[in-house]
Design a protein that fits this description.
The complex is a heterodimer. Chain A is 34% helix and 30% strand. By secondary structure, chain A is an alpha+beta fold. Chain B is mostly helical. Chain B has a single domain, classed as Orthogonal Bundle (Arp2/3 complex 21 kDa subunit ARPC3), CATH 1.10.1760. Classes of the chains: A alpha+beta, B mainly alpha.
């Protein structure tokens, strides 16, 4: 014993095989006990610190809620940036027009009219009858102007009509009119001999005094012959989602009067 | 005085909410008619004459805001207010269902009057399936909103800020 005491008193290079075996035998048991200690301390702290844990949970829940709001806000910003980028691209693409970006601040308060109010008015150069577009196509036209806001009647309103043509043939003429709802437009007065087909893209004809040629209106569907047999009618799925308008562009430098000048 | 102020502010607030929040949170493109709902509640509690006048004024406010066919909503809402006001003495206003069903009946009547006036004054109007779908969602929206709004309006008229006791 004295020998072993003396031998093991100093630092050793290796432990003996007997010690190793013993350690190996105890290791799992001690690990188990350690785990149990963890459970035990958690168990006791559950009762001891219940109130502080509850407070912690409340604080974390608040943090989660606030982070969720933050994520939503950032997603909104991201979508807004994407929309503004698209508008910027549109402005660069449509070099022939001078465009003014505007934000939709209100919509029609009832179901009989389809219009939006934008945050730009006469102070910004907006005038009555200016066409309004977004990245997808024609939105409508300005019908009344205040100093700092303007009302834009949408293409889907019953009182709005636009001279239109089929992009593929460039020959078929007609008039696209709103039906008072945002999902479908009506193209009327199409001559019976027109080569219009379902899926054809409908654009502005340029014959109207208000809208320049080539603005996208939508896609022709459901072509039917009028009872008199001389004219065709087509439903048009609008290119613009009128329910989701947030930013628009007003074409402020396209006006027949300006062109004549 | 406060009551009058609230009665004045309610249609203004209703119009603002319809043009902003409710037009964004629409049901399939249909927005509710808060203005009409308040007119119907007012008429139900105050009778046909006051209901008719209140409806007419609120409708005129809406017409002035819309800026087209001015007078159409004034007529429609005035008649609706008068018609619903006639129910005043014949129904138990305490019952929530009375308020909600009145909104439904008033909304249908208002649409019929507007439809008749539109057909007379507008050449480009036709009743199609889309219109009927919009009407259905519009009525549903009014119906849903009428439930909490009538609870508030009736209680306010009975013992709150809308109580007509000559003191307010």
């Amino acid at each position: 014993m004295l020998f072993t005491m003396r031998y093991t008193a100093a630092d050793r290079e290796n432990i003996t095989w007997g010690e190793k075996m013993l350690h190996e035998m105890y290791t799992p048991l001690l690990s188990g006990v350690k785990d149990l200690q963890g459970i035990g301390s958690g168990f006791s702290s559950f009762f001891e610190d219940k109130s502080s844990l509850n407070a912690q949970i409340d604080a974390l829940e608040e943090e989660v809620a606030s982070l969720k709001m933050e994520i939503n806000r950032l997603q909104e910003y991201r979508e807004e940036i994407e929309r503004l980028r698209a508008l910027l691209a549109l402005q660069e693409e449509k070099e022939e027009y001078r465009l003014l970006a505007a934000r939709v601040i209100a919509r029609s308060p009832n179901n009989w009219y389809r219009f939006v109010t934008i945050n730009k008015g006469s102070n910004d150069g907006i005038r009555k009858d200016l066409p309004v577009i977004n990245k997808d196509g024609l939105v409508g036209r300005v019908t009344s102007v205040n100093q700092n806001s303007a009302r834009v009647f949408l293409l889907s309103d019953r009182e709005i009509a636009v001279g239109a043509t089929i992009q593929r043939t460039r020959e078929t003429q007609g008039i696209v009119e709103g039906l008072g709802q945002n999902r479908t437009l009506n193209m009327i007065n199409i001559p019976y001999y027109s080569e219009i087909e379902e899926g054809d893209l409908v654009i502005t004809s340029g014959l109207s005094l208000i809208y320049p040629r080539g603005l996208m209106i939508g896609t022709a569907t459901d072509i039917t012959k009028e009872p008199n047999g001389l004219l065709l009618t087509a439903k048009v799925l609008p290119a613009v989602d009128f329910n989701k308008l947030e930013e628009v562009m007003v074409i402020i430098d396209y006006n027949p009067e300006i062109l004549e000048e | 005085m406060l009551r009058l102020l609230i009665l004045l502010l309610l249609p203004l607030a209703a119009l603002f909410l319809q043009a902003s929040i409710f037009s964004v949170f629409n049901i399939k493109g249909a927005v509710p008619d808060l203005l009409l709902i308040f007119i119907i509640f007012f008429a139900l509690i105050n009778g046909p004459k006051k209901g008719g006048v209140y409806g007419l004024l609120c409708g005129l406010l809406e017409d002035l805001y819309l800026g087209r066919f001015i007078g159409m909503n004034a007529i429609a809402k005035g008649i609706t207010g008068y018609a619903i006001g006639n129910l005043q003495i014949n129904v138990f206003k305490e019952n929530l269902l009375v308020g909600v069903i009145s909104v439904l009946i008033g909304s249908i009547l208002n649409i019929i009057i507007l439809l008749l006036l539109t057909v007379v004054f507008s050449t480009s109007f036709s009743v199609d399936l889309h219109f009927l779908v919009d009407v259905f969602f519009h009525l549903s929206y009014n119906f849903l909103l009428a439930i909490p709004l009538y609870m508030w309006y009736y209680n306010s008229s009975k013992s709150g800020i809308l109580k007509n006791n000559g003191e307010r």
